[in-house]
Design brief:
This protein is an all-alpha fold. Helices cover 75% and strands 0% of the residues. The protein folds into 2 domains: 172 residues, no CATH class; 196 residues, no CATH class. The chain is built from 19 helices and no strands. Helix 1 runs parallel beside helix 5, helix 2 runs parallel beside helix 18 and helix 11 packs across helix 15.
């Protein structure tokens, strides 16, 4: 039975790879290779104004701490999506749940599916290790990838069974874990990793997937219903409606819809991006010789990148726009202004922190504010304007937008803020490409 299901899964994967083989095997590796091999050289040779990075490298203990922190954040942000897939509720009912398949086979199928989902995450980890020159650690992402789904499955089922699916309680636990990752010696990490592996993998397989998964199904579904009701607050909708007044009237309803969907957790990546932006804001306190504009550009890019998964998740429902008098240009402009709106406060936050920590004369402060605002608008516009690049694949769109954002940062910060004007011909080109792609999809 497992071989039959595995063959069907592999055929689906093979069909998708056959249709998009150029993206996965040519364009993606080439762009990732260029980012890894030339990234440090570009900064060393050209980023004098942003802050010359003389040695882009990290120590091995710091790499280990960051790796464990990243894995912990992955478990935290993947907790609710995995719980929805684990419990066979009406919202996540799959064909496998209707067939007489044994629990052991179901677990193996779910494990294999999670392995395939986690592969891009660990490949990205290998690219980051290559970027920082930690080639001796390259074998560890592959080794962790092989058994990490067992830890995620076991932890998710154990937490839901003994506590609930409330991520606020879970956030407190992971906050304590982050503190321990800073305090504990690196030599003890392997012992704790073995302990949690031995604890959660067998517990999830022998008890959680076999018993708890069905016993807690009703309680978990009830929690989801209550959680959805909490997100449907009229007050949040009214606040978003006030924010949307600064958007042009012809696209205001589309932007307001996207903001409401974001508030209702339609795009779970928004909370991950908010946390990453918070970490970048904290790092400004000890930014070294790197200009604050580089941190601002990175934070704006992270926040504006929420538009990519939003656009991807809306793709199955995009046909409903055909019944409305909405043009492809309006769809593109709505996503562009959405990216600008959610990231607009970030330059002012960095400007306030920079002046509080390092006071400047009023003239220099105003010039810095102008530079950060122009940089924030440019980066968010490039992220939102390139939304149709990469055939609606968020990862590929991230790479394209990242390259353009780096160039925008160098032009505006290193050369002159007046280089902001180059944004308009770039957006015009992106708009033409986006309209063509959207029209081919049948949006207009």
């Amino acid at each position: 039975m497992f071989k039959i299901i595995l063959k069907s899964k592999l055929r689906i994967i093979g069909r998708n790879l056959t249709q998009d083989w150029a993206t996965y095997f040519i364009l993606g590796p080439v762009m990732m290779g260029v980012a890894s091999l030339l990234g440090r050289r570009i900064f060393n040779d050209f980023a004098f104004g942003v802050g010359r990075i003389q040695a882009v490298s990290i120590s091995e203990p710091l790499a280990v701490r960051l790796a464990f922190a990243t894995l912990a954040l992955k478990v935290f942000f993947n907790f609710l999506p995995m719980a929805k897939r684990l419990y066979p509720t009406e919202r996540s009912l799959a064909i496998e749940d209707l067939l007489p398949i044994s629990v052991h086979v179901r677990y193996k199928v779910f494990y294999f599916d999670q392995l395939f989902r986690d592969l891009p995450f660990f490949v990205a980890g290998m690219v980051i290790l290559l970027f920082f020159g930690q080639t001796q650690l390259l074998v560890w992402p592959l080794f962790i990838w092989a058994f990490f789904p067992g830890i995620e499955i076991g932890f998710t089922l154990t937490w839901v069974h003994f506590w609930s699916a409330n991520r606020k309680q879970l956030a407190g636990v992971f906050g304590a874990v982050m503190i321990l990752l800073v305090v504990l010696p690196v030599a003890q990490f392997s012992w704790w990793a073995d302990f949690f592996t031995i604890l959660f993998v067998p517990l999830g397989y022998y008890q959680g997937f076999k018993v708890w998964r069905y016993r807690d199904m009703g309680r978990f579904e009830q929690f989801l219903m209550v959680h959805q009701d909490r997100n449907n607050k009229i007050g949040a909708a009214s606040v978003l409606a006030q924010l949307s007044h600064i958007i042009p009237k012809n696209i205001r309803p589309l932007v307001l819809r996207d903001l409401i969907l974001t508030a209702r957790n339609f795009v779970p990546q928004i909370w991950r991006n908010v946390l990453l932006v918070g970490l970048v804001v904290l790092s400004v306190v000890n930014r070294g010789n790197i200009d604050v504009a580089a941190y601002c550009a990175l934070a704006v890019f992270m926040m504006a990148s929420t538009v990519a998964p939003l656009f991807s998740l809306q793709r199955p429902y995009r046909a409903m726009d055909n019944a409305l008098p909405i043009s492809a240009e309006q769809v593109w402009c709505a996503k562009l202004n959405y990216a600008r709106l959610i990231s607009f406060p970030i330059p002012f936050i960095f400007w306030g922190i920079e002046l509080f920590l390092r006071p400047r004369p009023i003239s220099e402060a105003l010039v810095l504010l102008l530079t950060l605002v122009l940089l924030g608008i440019a980066v968010s516009s490039l992220v939102g304007g390139s939304i149709c690049e990469g055939d609606q694949r968020p990862v590929l769109q991230y790479i394209i937008a990242a390259f353009m954002s780096v160039l925008a940062t160098l032009f505006i910060v290193v050369f002159n803020p007046a280089m902001f004007l180059l944004l308009f011909p770039v957006l015009s080109s992106l708009k033409g490409s986006a309209i063509t792609r959207l029209e081919n999809e049948g949006v207009s």
